[in-house]
């Protein structure tokens, strides 16, 4: 299992710097480190990744993070090319390569939201059409989705957990078993400094309301990828949104199943078509400029 911390020597090897330079950076406060009970300095993975991203550094030893270098990444001009490469990795079931590709884009400065919108979503959308002419396409799509779940959980591992109380909760409603979209939403918001609780998939509206009562969030998101019984959903959703309106609690909706229901116009209901939209909406809810870092 990958350690959650690095020694100064390991971080130096990771970025191709000298150990003495790392120690100077720690002593000057440029890198945050803590000391073990034995007096040894350790740097959290999240702190190391943030330092590398902030200083536009290259990773020389990705194996120290449990990753591999992919020679196909050199010289590519656009995120479209990388999405095509990711699609190939997902089609072939190459998990390590897919994770390394997405991490490479993240470490180079791409936000989690951008990564979801420009790499993962387009690749999965194309893969999701295979079943129309090949029955095995369902298997391919499920395997690809599982790899993407691993990608998002791996990226989440590299993030510093936001501090403070939970300010947002979300998930998918009862009957919607798609885990990836709501996980992407949670990791995107956490990468922006928002403390959230992802309730996962197939959550009854009654459970959402119970979580709202206990956690007292400032917004709720619903990911809608599948609606099984449309009429039942409409009735339950109406009751749910009225409860949220009575609490003046903003509701953010997204997902390709939105077209199956009529969403009323309301100042407390927000529609997002991407993870970047989600970030912008939460910034507006929090009364912050759209180019600011999200915090409570």
Strand share of the residues?
5-15%
Name of the level-1 CATH class of the largest domain = Alpha Beta
State mean pLDDT (0 to 100 scale): 89
Q: What is the radius of gyration? A: 21 Å
Report the CATH topology name of the largest domain: Rossmann fold
Shape: globular
Q: Which range best describes the helical content: under 10%, 10-25%, 25-40%, 40-55%, 55-70% or over 70%?
A: 40-55%
Total domain modules: 3
Query: Which parts are unreliable, with pLDDT below 50 for 5 consecutive residues or more?
Result: 292-296
Largest sheet: 5 strands, parallel
Give the oligomeric state: single chain
Distance between the termini: 33 Å
Structural class: alpha/beta
Number of strands: 8
The main sheet orders its strands as: 5-4-6-7-8
Could you characterize the architecture of this molecule?
- The protein has 296 residues and is an alpha/beta fold.
- The protein has three domains: 5-62, Multidrug-efflux Transporter Regulator, Chain: A, Domain 2; 71-157, Methyltransferase, Methionine Synthase (B12-binding Domains), Chain A, domain 1; 168-285, Rossmann fold (3-Layer(aba) Sandwich), CATH 3.40.50.
- Helices cover 48% and strands 9% of the residues.
- It has eleven helices and eight strands.
- It has helices spanning 8-15, 19-27, 45-54, 79-92, 95-107, 112-127, 137-157, 180-191, 205-215, 230-246, 275-285; strands at 5-6, 34-35, 41-44, 168-171, 196-198, 219-223, 251-254, 269-271.
- The strands form two sheets. The protein has a five-stranded parallel sheet, with helices on both faces.
- Strand 2 and strand 3 form a beta hairpin.
- Helix 4 packs antiparallel against helix 5.
- The longest helix has 21 residues, at 137-157.
- Mean pLDDT is 89; it is low at 292-296.
